[in-house]
């Protein structure tokens, strides 16, 4: 497994875990209070921060373990990696556009900040996850 693919997998794993925990915590809070009464931003900020740190730590640890097995190929990257990364970014950007349009609509109808922020937050998460899945598929099946 090449360097960039390991980093993609690390991002996917951390995103899936962090978003699952966040959604469970959020649904539990929504069961107790109305959305407008929830102090949502600290939980969202912590989720974002922990996700970033978690992905970095997982990538480093995985890289160290991979370097112990194959010291010569640990950080190697080529044109194929760059092309796959671009393709994954393009796939993921579609979800950012959809989330951005959703945010515009929510602002137009003067929705509560809770809904506006979560639309964008889940758009970012979905963008990262779907783009990562597209990259992993491209690594396994190749670019057409």
What can you see in these coordinates?
This protein has one domain. 83% of the residues lie in helices and 0% in strands. It has helices spanning 3-32, 40-69, 79-108, 113-141. Helix 1 packs antiparallel against helix 2 and helix 3 runs antiparallel to helix 4. The longest helix has 30 residues, at 3-32. It is flat, with a radius of gyration of 18 Å. The protein starts with a helix and ends with a helix. The model has no long low-confidence stretch (mean pLDDT 92).
State the gist of this model.
This protein is mostly helical and 144 residues long. The protein is 83% helix and 0% strand.
Principal-axis shape equals: flat
CA-to-CA gap between the ends? 20 Å
Q: What would you report as the Rg, rounded to the nearest angstrom?
A: 18 Å
Total beta-strand segments: 0
Low-confidence stretches: none
Q: Percentage of helical residues?
A: over 70%
Q: What is the beta-strand fraction?
A: under 5%
Helix-strand makeup class: mainly alpha
Alpha plus pi helix count: 4
Write down the secondary-structure element order: HHHH
Number of domains: 1
- The average pLDDT is 92
Largest sheet: none
């Amino acid at each position: 497994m090449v360097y960039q693919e390991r980093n993609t997998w690390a991002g996917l794993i951390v995103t899936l875990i962090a978003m699952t925990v966040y959604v469970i915590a959020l649904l539990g809070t929504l069961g107790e209070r109305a959305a407008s009464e929830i102090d949502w931003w600290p939980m969202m900020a912590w989720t974002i921060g922990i996700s970033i740190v978690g992905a970095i730590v997982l990538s480093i640890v995985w890289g160290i373990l991979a370097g112990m097995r194959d010291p010569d190929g640990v950080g190697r990257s080529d044109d194929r990696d760059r092309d796959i990364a671009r393709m994954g970014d393009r796939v993921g950007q579609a979800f950012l556009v959809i989330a951005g349009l959703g945010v515009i609509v929510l602002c137009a109808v003067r929705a509560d900040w809770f809904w506006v922020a979560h639309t964008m937050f889940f758009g970012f998460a979905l963008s990262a996850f779907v783009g990562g899945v597209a990259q992993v598929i491209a690594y396994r099946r190749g670019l057409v």
